[in-house]
Amino acid sequence: MSDSGHPLQMTSRTFYLALTVIMIAMVVIASFFIVRMARHPSEQIEKMLFEQDYVSARTEIEKRLLAGGNRGEAYYFLGRIELALDHPKEAIDAIDKSEKSGFSGSSLEVIRALVMARAGNYQQAEAILLPAFENGGSPKAEIREGLSRIYLGQFKMARASQAIEAWKQVSPHDDRPYLLRSEIDARTGADSDVMIRDFEAALLRNPQNLIAHKKLAQTLLSQNRLDESLNHFQICLKANPQDASILIGLGQVALKRSDQDEAEGYLREALKINPEEVFALSELSQIEIEKGNIQGALGQLEQALKVSPFNSELLYKYSQALKLAGNLDRSKKVLQQSNQLKVEEKQIEEIRKELVRNPSNLEIRVEAAEWLISHGHEREGLEWADQVLKQKPAHQSMCKFLAQFYLKKNDHALSNYYASLVLPVNKSGH
């Protein structure tokens, strides 16, 4: 019998022939994808941005810039990365370089509008982003993010919710829509369980999101789910041991577990990092009272009140400490201040609720800004005032208030500026 007819030999020849065909096919397929990637380099970076792999995306962009490829497109992608990392100045620099390198189109204006939105220039940003959204413009995720932030900043909760849901659909791996959704929940008084689901959804997509860990820990603490809260606070502490707010959270957990020594340790450690942490000072005063050290408690509370003089709860604790120290007259006066502030705090809560119901009412925003500034929340109040003036420059009652506010602070330049925007009243009173 001829060897050529042996079954094993025939099988071997068939095998090697098949293997050769497979290898040729693999080379052809690989070549196709290499050519495709070379022809469509943007698809690779888009995929990285979609997956929030900003390190790999930046590395790929830097390679292309060094290789001298499409620099305009590379800088455009770099601008999107900087924006995602919350570096607005760097994002604008990259977009400017993109334009100078010959890249053009509405996408560049979208990135600029997103920076405007983050800076609080809502009207200008919306004028660009809303048409881009309605016309199916790109980048889709960023457009929806920008609209979400605009409507949240304007207290337009229904529109903000719609924009966030649209953002989730085009960016299912992104954790940020869920954090922004939790802000809506907080402002509308949603149940804690709803907020917990938002934080857990964010962490499912990004287990390293420390903001989500911290907010989840605080929400769980409010529900007395102490073991779970402790776990998330400890994750935060491991990542950032110099964050006083995390130490305070751990102190709160210890207090709820009636472990006074552990709580005191965490609170004092927080004060080493930030001596003006009001909550730590307040809780330590209570610990001092329980130890019988009334003077020590008074010292802690007086230090806290220097930082937060319009805090009704602090004033109440101070009045009780004064009473224990035998200073009854002073205690009574401080208690009256505390009760008055509680009444006023209800006013700002009503103002906030009215803003949710009627977000377009500028006069409510003015009222909120004036209340906040007058009650020691200057930074937040001035942000509200800025929003009023961006929507209606030279708003008369807002400018009058700011002129007086800066006059009291001896900032004559700003006081005169706002006073100059106030229109004179004619003889008829108009």
Overall body shape: globular
As a percent range, the share of helical residues equals over 70%
Q: CATH superfamily assignment of the domain at 175-273?
A: Tetratricopeptide repeat domain
CATH architectural name of the domain at 175-273: Alpha Horseshoe
Task: Outline the structure in words.
The radius of gyration is 30 Å and the shape is globular. It contains 23 helices and no strands. The N and C termini lie far apart (120 Å). It is mainly α and 430 residues long. It has helices at residues 7-39, 41-50, 54-67, 71-84, 88-100, 106-118, 122-134, 140-153, 157-170, 176-187, 192-205, 210-222, 226-239, 244-256, 260-273, 278-291, 294-307, 312-324, 328-357, 362-374, 378-391, 396-408, 412-420.
Short structural summary:
This protein has 430 residues and is mainly α. Helices cover 79% and strands 0% of the residues. Among the domains are: 175-273, Tetratricopeptide repeat domain (Serine Threonine Protein Phosphatase 5, Tetratricopeptide repeat, Alpha Horseshoe), CATH 1.25.40; 276-346, Alpha Horseshoe (Serine Threonine Protein Phosphatase 5, Tetratricopeptide repeat); 362-430, Serine Threonine Protein Phosphatase 5, Tetratricopeptide repeat (Alpha Horseshoe), CATH 1.25.40.
Write a concise keyword list for the protein shown above:
430 residues, Serine Threonine Protein Phosphatase 5, Tetratricopeptide repeat, 79% helix, 0% strand
